[in-house]
Write a structure and sequence with these properties.
- By secondary structure, the protein is α/β, with parallel strands linked by helices.
- The strands form two sheets. Strands 3-2-1-4-7-6-8-5 form an eight-stranded mixed sheet, with helices on both faces.
- Helix 7 packs across helix 12, helix 9 packs parallel to helix 10 and helix 10 runs antiparallel to helix 11.
- 41% of the residues are buried.
């Protein structure tokens, strides 16, 4: 069945590409004009969205903490379970244990579940030499398809004891008081707040130019754009880590989509369709930035493939989506996905307008209206200024101030996304569920000051616990 669907997708894609090529050959002027106008329109709409989010963020009050709520001892704290999916991560496994040990939340109310694949003997072997504290345990996911992060989390969710479910990635280094802040926010929030999203940051921005730009991009997105979008009342695509959910909401929605390689973005809009909200909270988790072009393109192509899949899945029934989200959030959904994807795929057309600043006539000068070719370059400069201003605002703090001079170089960074977009489109047709794994552990030595772990002898095998479905799960020592 899977092979048949793949052949069908490839055949339909071939037909679509043939038809598009024929249109360009037969009606070159009309085809190029339509594509160019669509590229310009989505650029303008995307810039308007970015400007509105920036203004909304800039006008937000700064004197009220986002995590204000009952203090410990006044109201009982909730139990929290944190899932950490690992797959072929032996180089970061031991450091992960040390980083998560810095969390200050009461350990009697915290459990960290390391989610391993049955076939991943590398990571299982690495963790066998690490001394796990009593509040940390291992769950092994039986082998199956699709072998994705959301499938593993769905399996591990049944073993969680917490009322709040959090997600970390293998290389994460969260703020020590992060879960305290999250718990207080949920305790003070109304029931419709289903998810709290923290800030994602990077701990190796000085490693390469690409890592610097990656850090600026994420700072802009998580510190400026997402908070602004929340204040505007839009639903937001979640990040794949530092998300905390009410467990009952997760179970009501059926968990994560195991076939979506950006299960986080999908879940953010799925929650909104059912009347739930997501909020940003001021606490950071530091990750490792992809610091070389090839892993960056691989990672970004997976995200863009997931974006395309998320849009197509939710738009299978547009009227139902409209009823679920409401007109305003439906508009935000369309604006976010259509502009982001269109800009990556049609960027080469927009790049041609920069030739005008070099004194070279635009290649479509005889096709497009003169007013358009004369006005758009100046419009591009204005949009570029918006991007730079938002980036400068995002990295103005003490921890990121060294990146201020690099913000203008984002103009040379984003074109890499075009390569990722076309790779993502190819994979969406040929291998839509393939998870292009991002390798971690490539930071410069000493980037993250994590003390060395005290490896212990291989733990004694513990009795296997049988799940309700009849699957045996081997618990690590200290579970």
């Amino acid at each position: 069945m899977g092979a048949h669907n793949q052949r069908l997708r490839i055949a339909l894609t071939g037909v679509a590409l043939t038809a598009l090529t024929a249109l360009v050959v037969v009606f070159p002027v009309a085809a190029i004009t339509v594509l160019m106008l669509w590229a310009c329109l989505t650029l303008i709409v995307g810039a308007a969205m970015k400007t509105a989010a920036f203004v909304s963020w800039a006008s937000a009050p700064r004197d009220t903490p986002a995590d204000a709520g009952p203090q410990p001892g006044v109201v009982p704290l909730p139990r929290v379970s944190v899932l950490v999916p690992l797959y072929r991560e032996p180089e970061v496994a031991s450091a992960l244990v040390t980083r998560l040990s810095r969390l200050r939340y009461p350990k009697a109310l915290l459990e960290v579940i390391l989610v391993l694949e049955e076939t991943d003997t590398l990571t299982r072997g690495a963790l066998a030499g690490a001394r796990l504290p009593p509040w940390m345990r291992v769950i092994v996911v039986p082998d199956g398809q699709p072998r994705t992060k959301p499938r593993a989390m769905n399996y591990a969710l049944d073993f969680c004891r917490g009322e709040i479910i959090g997600i970390f990635d293998a290389e994460d280094a969260p703020d020590p008081d992060q879960i305290d802040r999250v718990a207080r926010r949920f305790m003070a929030a109304p029931p419709d707040l289903a998810c709290v999203q923290g800030i994602l940051d990077y701990y190796n921005p000085r490693q390469t130019w690409l890592a610097r730009c990656f850090t600026i991009e994420y700072a802009t997105w998580f510190r400026v754009m997402l908070p602004g979008m929340v204040r505007l009342g839009f639903a937001i695509p979640l990040g794949g880590t530092t998300c905390y959910f009410r467990r009952d909401v997760l179970e009501r929605l059926g968990g994560w989509d195991a076939h979506n390689v950006t299960e986080d973005a999908d879940l953010g809009f799925r929650m909104a369709r059912h009347g739930y909200r997501s909020e940003m909270i001021v606490t950071a988790t530091h990750e490792e930035a992809a610091c070389h072009p090839r892993p960056w393109v691989k990672q970004r192509s997976r995200w863009l493939k997931g974006y395309m899949a998320t849009y197509l899945v939710h738009m299978r029934r547009p009227l139902r989506l409209l009823r679920g989200l409401g007109p305003w959030q439906f508009l935000g959904f369309q604006t976010h996905f259509i502009t982001a994807l269109s800009q990556f795929f049609l960027a080469p057309l927009l790049w041609t307008f920069w030739l005008i600043f070099l004194g070279v006539p635009h290649p479509f000068a005889g096709v497009l209206p003169a007013a358009l070719t004369g006005t758009l370059p100046h419009l591009f400069l204005g949009i570029e200024a918006i991007t730079i201003i938002a980036g400068l605002a995002a990295v103005r703090g003490a921890d990121h101030r060294h990146l201020l001079a690099w913000v203008p170089s984002l103009h040379l960074y984003y074109p890499l996304g075009v390569l990722a977009a076309y790779k993502a489109l190819y994979e969406l047709v040929t291998t839509p569920f393939y998870w292009d794994k991002t390798r971690h552990g490539h930071s410069l030595p000493g980037v993250v000051p994590v003390p060395g772990t005290q490896p212990s002898a291989r733990p004694r095998p513990q009795p296997a616990t049988t799940t309700p479905g009849g699957t045996s799960v081997q618990r690590a020592q200290g579970a």
